[in-house]
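Pinned message: reference record for Claudin
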Amino acid sequence: MASASLQFFAFILALFGVFGDITATLLPNWKVNADVGSNIITAITQMQGLWMDCTWYSTGMFSCTLKYSVLSLPVYIQAARTTMVLSCILSAFGICITTVGMKCTKLGGDPDSKSHACFAGGVCFILAGIFGLVPTSWYTREIISNFLDQTIPESSKHEPGGAVYIGFISAAFLLIAGVIFCTSCFKKQQGAWIYGPKQHHFPSTEQESNAGYNLKDYV
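Predicted structure (tokens):
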């Protein structure tokens, strides 16, 4: 029962991780312009994402421009696009597989098949967490390095946006969920390997009784 509750908790974490992963992939605020200049009153706020760049004006208007050209983008943005999409796909596969493999569901057939499905779903979550952690870390490194570069004008410097933080948290949720699913199935299989199937030993009362009768025949 405790293992089933732990798997359900990991499944909830994975759901939050999947939704956060998709949200971080689509949000346009991976980096926002930093207010580091001498001008206190800023008329606009610029945000850049993986798929579009958006500008928010002080009048309340909001406009976005899609990034159509892939080859003109920096390498870290191209890599972030690819890895985040792979993370979303793997996490979605993990949700489908662990739904079949969890102990609290009646899908998946016998316990061995459910255990294997649960382990495969955990591996998908771990890979999705890694694919989500790599682009967010790389993107953050590029933002910080540009921010500390003295040759770049202050108006062109940016800070990490909300999508980066959501990506970090979602990757952590997916990694934790994957580790829980894998370890819960591994412990079960390890116990079966150590102890093996139970063997039932019955006392040979019939043989003893026959031996007793044979001895009486000789008396």
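Pinned by admin. Summary line: The chain has five helices and five strands.
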